[in-house]
Amino acid sequence: MSAKNSADQWFAVYGESHQHHTNQFIHWICVPLIFFCAMGFIWIIPVPDNLLERAPWFNWTLPVIAAVMAFYLRLSPMLSAGLLFYISLCYSVLAMLELIDPTLIGKLCAALFVLAWIGQLIGHQIEGQKPSFLHDLVFLLIGPAWLMAKIYKKLGQPY
Predict the structure, then answer these.
(1) What is the DSSP string of 59-121?
(2) How buried is 45 (Cβ within 10 angstroms: 0-12 exposed, 13-18 middle, 19+ buried)?
(3) Number of domains in the chain
(4) 95-104, long-range: CB within 8 Å, 24+ apart, which pairs?
(5) Three-state DSSP class for 17?
(6) For 39-61, what is each residue's pLDDT tens digit?
């Protein structure tokens, strides 16, 4: 599939390996955690001092968020609004964790990331299907959008 495919086309392919109720339940927990942890891992990448002198607020999540949001915007402006809300929550939690103890981000994200991927693998074992991202890495971004689309559908909100 290409970036020009519609959200529904992506969701149809993604949904093929996410039919089992238990696998779907596990994804509701693990996909947001994995997304948060990925942001956390990017957050802790050191920023060169000369860049921090000019922009003390900068961290590497900002350009990555911009790229991810560009993808989501092309996929669906409405979904991108909900996903931006979630990304903002993640960003806020990471900022708070950094204020408490900067080393906490890496430790917490490493533990949660491993546990969430174990959960995902268990879900796909129950499903009897391989994870979608093994077919196309873009599915790592489709998972959160798929969940957001389900929230929108429950609320009767088109996306």
Answers:
(1) -THHHHHHHHHHHHHHH-HHHHHHHHHHHHHHHHHHHHHHHH-HHHHHHHHHHHHHHHHHHHH
(2) exposed
(3) 1
(4) 97/40, 98/43, 102/44
(5) coil
(6) 999 999 999 999 999 999 999 99
Question: Is 145 inside a domain boundary?
Answer: yes
Three-state DSSP state, 8: helix
pLDDT at 1: 57
Of 122, 143, 123, 118, nearest to 132 by C-alpha is 143
Q: Establish if 11 belongs to a structural domain.
A: no
Domain presence at residue 62: yes
Per-block mean pLDDT, blocks of 10 residues, the chain (159 long): 76 91 96 98 97 95 98 96 98 97 96 97 92 81 96 94
What's the gap between Cα 127 and its chain centre?
21
Range of the structural domain that residue 55 is part of: 21-152
On whether residue 55 sits in a domain, the answer given is: yes
